Amino acid sequence: MTRRFVLDPFGDKYAHRTSSMLSSEIRDLLAVTARRDIISLAGGLPYTQAMDPGVILGLVEEVLREDHAAALQYGPTDGYAPLKRSLVEVMREEGIPCLPEDIIITNGAQQGLEIISKIFINPGDDIVTEAPSYVGALNSFLSYQPRIHTIPIDGEGMLLDPLEKTLRRLSGRGRQVKFIYTVPNFHNPAGVTMSTERRYGLLQLAETFDCLVVEDNPYGLLRFEGEPSPALRTLDENRVIYLGTLSKIFSAGMRIGWVAAPHPILEKLLLAKQSADLCTSSFTQRVAHLYFSRHDWRGQIGQLVEIYRERRNVMLEAMEEFLSGIASWTRPQGGLFLWVTLPEFIRTSDMLASAIDAKVAYVPGRGFFPYEGGENSMRLNFSYPEPELVWEGIKRLSKVVKREVALAKSLGLGPKTNGYPGTEE
Q: What domains lie within the chain, and their CATH numbers?
């Protein structure tokens, strides 16, 4: 990747918070991975080819026939009421209690993260995230200049002992954590799922130390195997701010997400959204409502689950074939991602250029940590490439990794792996 650097003559005019804004390595990769000759295991792209374009065309025509003037007009800031009722049904599919009036519709869950950050974080405030954590959340948080305290995870999610020690240490200093952010189902980027026991434990600690929990759940309906655990919102509606999205189960391009939260918090979120964009697209909200009210969306999700399960299995088989004994990786029960840990002397950010030369791309792990960490890790996506490309991509990537290991050996560095808890070797 080449980037042109230009002297910025406006440096003295920007707000101080811009110094905390980070570019997403995932977004930076898109220009490169769009090349047809590169197998991209990088972006978290859903497989939109599974959606029948005729269905979308029919929905659009129906929206325009029913009330084209309203569809092309501004709408209420909190969202299109019929769609909110549809979203309640989507949440009910996972056993999550909710009422339409508990919801604000946002421009993707990403806007939800942004306005949550806006209403809660002052510079210097304390928040807690998993390590690694979703890079889009980290970037939203960092732009408001908090102190982010990271808690390691294993195959069952966030470790509670380090979390309790962190909360107790901060409390002892007279500091209160504003919120704990977590992706409990099929974690982005790690692919792991928080156990039921830890969900209860997390909420107990949040109550003890009087902090909120932000539950980000983009992938909950994309389960391949295993029994689901209750959503954090199901266990505590009064302390949990819940984020949902249609990006992974319908359309990422329509940019529809939602926040479900206690009503005092919703009122502040509504004000933050009003100042950001006035309202989410009336047109796309109506299209989405017709889809979820009149079409077999559960069947469509079932089709996606089968597609993603096959591709995950191919990736796991390829990892075992080409990288066994060299790397360790997670085995997700759903979602879109594997988290791979390489020998500790390998820097995946440095290795990326060689991977691009080999016509394969991944996301270096460094970007999933707010300050430091993940240097020898990477996130791999299996949802978008066809199965044969998943296999070929891992094959190409393995050659790059093995060259790096051989080079390190020649320089006298050890070949041992730095195992990631809860992974398969």
A: 11-51+299-410 (3.90.1150.10), 74-294 (3.40.640.10)
